[in-house]
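[job 4471] stage=fold_predict status=RUNNING
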Amino acid sequence: MSKQKRSSSGTRPRPSSALRGHPRPVHPAISSPWHIRRSRGLQILELARFAEFSWLAHGFSTRPKGVSQLESESVLNLGFMEWDNPENVRENRRRFQSSLEAADLRLAPLKQIHSDVVHLFAQSSVDPCKGDAAASKQPGILLAIQTADCVPILLVDPKKRAVAAVHAGWRGTLARIAQKTIGRMQQEFDSRPSDLLAAIGPSIGPCCYEVAADFVAKFTAQFADAPEYFDEPLSGDEPNPLQWLNMKPPGHQPPPKSVRLDLRKANRSQLLLAGLRAQDIFTSDLCTSCRPDLLFSYRREGPLTGRLIAAIGIRA
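[job 4471] inference complete, writing structure tokens
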């Protein structure tokens, strides 16, 4: 990701997320079992099923009402971005934890690298480490993953009182990070997949996630049901029919068309394959690219955007 320099005001102009002079689009209401809980001025997306457990802290952050300034907008940026002041990010994180009523938990974010690395946090002391998923049954730790389009997944084992947080971009999804996290929970906590609950949080939807046609071949090589993840059943190797219409000579035809990928569906499929029950997987239909009023999207806004956090932990 390229770096963006801060201006003297701490921001850099970017295209507005709404057309000036026109009414804002009307978005559908967030429906059960998901809901927005307003706490200490922030809006936290929660799953009602998780909220049933008094010992569990969880939440998906949203964009509004932080102390960071982005194009004269006050935003809850929770990632250490080049355009933002680090102290603003720390204050935003403090406010986010407070809104979860988890101020006394140690935040355990990862240095995410789009991998299949799963870390186990077994002690209350938290050291930064590289990876894209974390699991724990240690009270007092708040697992956290950052997103701005990728799929955040929170897992709970109510019987063993164990939790996990997963960051699944297309590379992590292809590497089966969700399945591997469940395998780690089985190994470390003796969790049974049929006991687990999963919350798939806001991410870029199939409406907006356009990828190269060769992604079809990449995913089909790994997953039997991969054609269901795409809006067209292309292999990525078909000849381009447009070359015959525009009469271009071989080697000069237009590039293969792109397709749209449903990362949520791909990860839900992995959870089912790992042994979770369909009724225990809850998927938010909020698209990060469609909702600049509520969420951050790298695909829509480019480097000058913030980061969301999906967090889960066991209260001390």
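[job 4471] summary: Residues 34-204+280-314 form a domain with the CNF1/YfiH-like putative cysteine hydrolases fold (CATH 3.60.140.10).
[job 4471] exit 0
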